[in-house]
Inverse folding.
């Protein structure tokens, strides 16, 4: 893959609608990319799918390979990373985790639109005719909104329950997210 930075400006032209292969959700950390991805897939699982990640972590007794993760050795994963076979990868608690490009291809081959939530720097890998991404930028709420959430949590005793406070305060943005889900669902129509 080319190591050049992502272009800040890209010329665009009006095109007739066509079926996209990949939806890429991009946004700041904690803005709800994964939640939106999961809601979109549960909204229409016959139309949308997501790639399963790979990990070098040992498989647990209650897990099945290929259900939540693909389990591979660290050596195999490191070799594949060196061969640029991963969209993104990272290390956590001494184990590698990553999204292999072949898993995106498998979702597309199954006839589903592949939904990916990734960091913006990986768009240069996906911005190809093979993946034809429809990129959705998820903006964070205004800073004032976070201040209101903080105050609401403090006054209603949710000090340590960040998710509950966040979920309740974010409900104001629910209609905007619902419209986003509807527009994403219409991509394949």
């Amino acid at each position: 893959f080319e190591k050049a930075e992502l272009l800040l400006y890209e010329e665009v032209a009006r095109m007739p609608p066509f079926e996209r292969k990949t939806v890429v959700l991009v946004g700041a950390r904690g803005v709800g990319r994964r939640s939106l991805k999961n809601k979109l897939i549960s909204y229409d699982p016959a139309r949308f799918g997501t790639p399963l990640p790979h990990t070098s972590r040992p498989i647990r007794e209650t897990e099945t390979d290929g259900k939540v993760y693909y389990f591979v050795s660290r050596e195999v994963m490191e070799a594949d990373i060196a061969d640029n076979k991963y969209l993104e990868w990272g290390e956590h608690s001494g184990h590698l985790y990553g999204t292999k490009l072949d898993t995106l291809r498998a979702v597309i081959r199954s006839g589903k639109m592949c939904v990916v939530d990734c960091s913006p720097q990986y768009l240069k890998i996906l911005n190809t005719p093979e993946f034809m991404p429809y990129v959705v930028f998820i903006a964070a709420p205004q800073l004032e909104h976070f201040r209101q959430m903080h105050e609401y949590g403090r006054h209603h005793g949710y000090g340590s329950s960040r998710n509950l406070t966040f979920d309740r305060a974010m409900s104001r943005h629910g209609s905007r997210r619902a419209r986003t889900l509807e527009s994403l669902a219409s991509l394949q129509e």
Q: What stands out?
A: The CA atoms of residues 23 and 111 lie 14 Å apart. The first helix runs from residue 33 to 43.
